[in-house]
Design goal:
Sulfite Oxidase, Chain A, domain 2; binds ligand MTE; mainly beta; 2 domains; about 10% helix; binds molybdenum atom; 5-stranded antiparallel sheet; Immunoglobulin-like; single chain
Length: about 375
């Protein structure tokens, strides 16, 4: 098992290692198991000697800190939170039929997962360093060096001050009650609930309080929403919009894409998520391309920062080809129907309706008609 992962992950790249689980591995699990949690890397996984690892806190602070793992754990209270991570490239595959997204992996709907994280509050560490009032942003650097920028750079990001001092933002050393796995950022990673996954810096080594957002490639040039006509290889730092809070999104986890299903009742289930202070308030499912909708049941949610699982039963007719779903958030934003209007050069934030195509089993349909005549008229 590579990096402790299931062998049936869809691997988008070996080096750097990038992989997502099949839909079935996420279906109906409020917390994603460690062996099924997606992995997104922009460089090689760094080798870190825990005893030598130090976390440096500097920039606009009264006193710089340098903390070993033991000091971090001893000095700061441990807080636990279930939170969903979602890559900005999640569901990119839906863009590819609109227009190619060169140089980016065709992530399906499972570049997302929910874990129970625990660690120190970033707010507590920043307070201990005495962060200044004029520090509008907090920047992070990881230990891994990515060759995506030229010249190569460590992976980095920043978040605005209010999110940095919010109670939900953690420096996590544990995931689902176990020591944070190496592939997920051990010994310590940021967890920035409700923000795109790219802000949750793994293998974090340096935290800098500053007046401006990070000038790291992954904040200033990548993970930005560019205009459709922009050339992603020739953009100026700061062009486009830095992605932060996750837009309302959902996908279907069961049935699987391409599944053969019996006509008649079919259970449909999936996840929905809306970032930052928004919550998922409704999920609708349709089998007639959105002419009519049925509201799904919203199921258990581990915390306000976790995805909402949902499920419903639809009636599959012999002519059914697609099951579609859309979520609504607490600001009344709904997922748009088509990815065509959302396409952007880096292929981020595809939050178009979820759609899986199914093949109704026609032999089952015939059997069904003989046992309950008229079923198709009433469906
Ligand atoms: N140091 C570092 N942190 C990182 C990354 C990375 O490549 N290096 N990838 C980011 C991206 S794009 C995502 S979506 C999440 C994925 O976290 P995971 O691999 O634990 O699922 O980590 C983020 N943190
Ligand atoms: Mo990501």
């Amino acid at each position: 098992m590579r990096w402790g992962k299931r062998t049936d992950l869809v691997v988008h790249g070996e080096d750097p290692f990038n992989a997502e689980p099949p839909r079935a591995a996420l279906a109906d699990e409020t917390v994603t198991s460690l062996d099924a949690f997606y992995v997104r890397n922009h460089g090689p996984i760094p080798e870190i000697d825990r005893s030598l690892w130090r976390l440096r806190v500097d920039g606009l602070v009264d006193g710089e800190l340098e903390l070993s793992l033991e000091q971090l754990k001893a000095r700061f209270a441990e807080h636990e939170l279930a939170a969903t991570l979602q890559c900005a490239g999640n569901r990119r595959i839906g863009f590819l039929s609109v227009r190619d997204v060169p140089g980016e992996a065709p992530w399906g709907p499972c570049a997302t997962g929910t874990a129970v994280w625990s660690g120190a509050r970033l707010a507590d560490v920043l307070a201990a360093a005495g962060m200044h009032d004029d520090a509008e942003h907090v920047a992070f650097l990881g230990a891994d060096v990515s060759e995506e920028p030229d010249p190569a750079q460590p992976f980095g990001a920043s978040i605005p001050r209010p999110k940095a001092i919010a109670a939900e933002t953690l420096l996590a050393w544990s995931m689902n009650g176990e020591a944070l796995p190496v592939v997920h950022g051990a010994p310590v990673r940021l967890v920035v609930p409700g923000y795109i996954g790219a802000r949750s810096v793994k293998w974090v080594e340096r935290i800098t309080a500053q007046s401006e957002p990070s000038d790291n490639f992954f904040q200033a040039e990548s993970y930005r929403l560019l205009a459709a006509e922009a050339d992603p290889d020739a953009i100026a730092p700061g062009e486009g919009v830095a992605l932060g809070a996750v837009a309302v999104n959902a996908d279907i986890l069961s049935p699987d894409e391409g599944a053969t299903v019996a006509t008649g009742p079919l259970r449909v289930s999936g996840y929905a998520f809306a970032g930052d202070d928004r919550g998922v308030v409704r999920v609708d499912v349709s089998t007639d391309g959105g002419r009519s909708w049925r509201q799904a049941d919203l199921l258990d949610q581990r915390s306000p920062w976790s995805w909402r699982l949902w499920a419903t039963e639809v009636d599959v007719a012999a002519e059914t080809t697609d099951v579609v779903a859309r979520a609504w958030d607490s600001a009344a934003a709904a997922q748009p129907e088509s990815a065509a209007h959302l396409w952007n050069p880096k292929g981020y934030v595809n939050n178009a309706w979820a759609r899986v195509s199914v093949s109704p089993d026609r032999s089952a349909a015939r059997a069904d008609r003989t046992t309950s005549p008229g079923r198709r008229d009433t469906a």
